[in-house]
Specification:
The complex is a heterodimer of chains A (about 170) and B (about 160). Chain A has helices at about 15, 25-50, 50-70, 80-85, 100-120, 125-145, 150-160; one strand at about 5. Chain A is an all-alpha fold and about 170 residues long. In chain A, about 45% of the residues are buried. In chain A, α2 packs across α4 (about 80-85) and α2 packs antiparallel against α6. Chain A contains seven helices and one strand, in the order βααααααα. The longest helix of chain A is centred in the N-terminal third of the chain and has 22 residues, at about 25-50. Chain B is α+β, with helices and mostly antiparallel strands and about 160 residues long. Chain B has helices spanning about 5-25, 70-80, 100-105, 130-140; strands at about 30-35, 55-65, 85-95, 110-115, 120-125. In chain B, strands 1-5-4-2-3 form a five-stranded mixed sheet, with helices on one face. In chain B, β4 and β5 (about 120-125) form a beta hairpin. Chain B starts with a helix and ends in a 20-residue tail after the last helix. The chains are: A mainly alpha (about 170), B alpha+beta (about 160). The interface between A and B is large, with 47 and 59 residues. β1 of chain A pairs parallel with β3 (about 85-95) of chain B. Chain A: This is DUF4395 family protein. Chain A: It comes from Cryobacterium breve.
C-alpha cells in the first residue's frame, strides 16, 4: 500500500526560513567525536595532575572548536574537513547520508558545557574544568563508540519542555 | 593527584561511559507490548496526521528534525508498509508539536507505535526497531498463523491472540 506511506516532514513556513544544511556522512561526526573525546581526556588528566592553566587553555580551544561546529556546521568543521580529505576516501561509501542538523545541534551542546567549564575555571574554580570536560567526554565517547547522540536526545527533551520548537502559529 | 592516580580516574571514566553505552544499546529497539486494558485507540487526528491509518495495521513513527536515526527508521518502516497490504506508515514530526511529545510520553526519537486495524496501540518501540521484530508483530496482528507468534523473551505474553 505505497500511497499510505507518507511523511509529515513537509517543511512548515517557519522551518522553511531556516537554511538547510547539506547532508553529511554519519561517520564524519563520529570521527570528530573520537578526536574530541581523546582531547577531553587530556583536559581531565591535566586538571587532575594540577596543570590547571594547561587544562583551562585546552578546554578553551575545544570550546572554540565546538563553536566552529555549532555555527559553521559540522561539514565545515576542521575535523569534518579532515574526515572528508583523509578518512572518507579510504572507506566504503556510506549506506546513507544524514542531515547535518542533529550533529550540529550536538556541537552546540558541547559548546555550552565547555564554555561553562572555562568560565568557572576563569573564576578560579579549577576542578570544574575537569568536571565539565568529564561530562563532555561521556557525550563524545557515546557518540564515537556507540553512535549515541546525546545532544540529539536532549533536543527532544527541550522540545517537550517547550524551550525549543515552539511554533509561532498554534499548531 | 599524581599521574598514576589521574590515569586511574581516566580509566574509570572510560569504564563508566562504556557501561552507559552498553546499557543504552541493550535497550534500543525493544518492543513493549501494551496491555489491553491500557491500550488507547488512536485516530489519524490524534497524531496530527492527514493520512488515513492502514486497514490491517499502522506504524506510527515519532521523529524530530534533530534525530539522526529517524531517516533510517523512516526508510525501513516505509519499506515494510509498502510490502504489506493494509499496512500504513505515518511519520509524525514532533519538532513543532511539543503537545504530541508530552501526550505520548516520547522521550527519544524514533519512537514507534504499532496499531492494529482499529487504531488500538499494541506495542511501542523506543529507538530504531529491527525489521524482524516489526514483521513478527505485523504477522501477529494479521492473525491467522499461530506458528509465527512472537516467542522472544522481550515479548512477554500474547494478549492479543485471536
Amino acid at each position: 500500500m505505497p500511497s499510505d506511506s507518507v511523511s509529515n516532514h513537509a517543511p512548515t513556513p517557519n522551518q522553511a526560513a531556516q537554511p538547510r544544511r547539506a547532508p553529511v556522512d554519519p561517520r564524519g561526526p563520529r570521527f570528530s567525536a573520537a578526536i574530541t573525546a581523546v582531547l577531553l581526556l587530556v583536559v581531565i588528566f591535566l586538571s587532575l595532575t594540577g596543570a590547571s592553566v594547561a587544562a583551562l587553555s585546552l578546554l578553551a580551544v575545544l570550546a572554540v572548536l565546538f563553536a566552529w561546529g555549532a555555527f559553521a556546521g559540522v561539514g565545515r568543521h576542521p575535523y569534518g574537513l579532515l574526515f572528508k580529505r583523509f578518512v572518507r576516501p579510504r572507506l566504503a561509501p556510506p549506506a546513507e547520508l544524514e542531515d547535518a542538523t542533529p550533529p550540529t545541534f550536538a556541537q552546540g551542546v558541547g559548546l555550552f558545557v565547555s564554555v561553562i567549564g572555562v568560565a568557572l575555571g576563569l573564576f578560579g574554580l579549577a576542578p570544574f574544568v575537569g568536571i565539565a570536560a568529564g561530562l563532555a567526554f561521556i557525550a563524545a565517547f557515546l557518540n564515537a563508540v556507540f553512535d549515541y547522540c546525546l545532544g540529539c536526545q536532549l533536543y527532544l527533551l527541550l522540545v517537550r519542555a517547550r524551550v525549543l520548537g515552539r511554533s509561532p502559529a498554534a499548531a | 593527584m599524581n599521574p598514576f592516580g589521574a590515569a586511574l580516574v581516566l580509566v574509570a571514566l572510560v569504564a563508566v561511559a562504556t557501561v552507559l553505552g552498553l546499557v543504552y544499546r541493550s535497550r534500543q529497539g525493544l518492543f513493549r507490548d501494551v496491555a489491553d486494558d491500557e491500550a488507547t485507540v488512536l485516530t489519524p487526528a490524534d497524531v496530527g496526521s492527514q493520512v488515513p491509518f492502514g486497514a490491517a495495521a499502522t506504524l506510527v513513527q515519532f521523529s524530530t528534525e534533530f534525530c539522526s536515526r529517524c531517516p533510517g527508521t523512516h526508510r525501513l518502516l516505509t519499506q515494510i508498509a509498502d510490502g504489506r497490504p493494509g499496512v500504513a506508515h505515518v511519520d509524525v514530526d514532533l519538532t513543532h508539536r511539543a503537545d504530541l511529545a508530552s501526550r505520548f510520553g516520547v522521550l527519544q526519537t524514533p519512537t514507534t507505535l504499532i496499531l492494529d486495524g482499529a487504531g488500538r496501540v499494541h506495542a511501542r518501540v523506543g529507538g530504531p526497531p529491527h525489521r524482524a521484530d516489526v514483521l513478527r508483530h505485523l504477522d501477529h496482528l494479521a492473525g491467522p498463523e499461530p506458528a509465527n507468534f512472537p516467542t522472544a523473551s522481550h515479548l512477554p505474553g500474547s494478549p492479543h491472540a485471536q
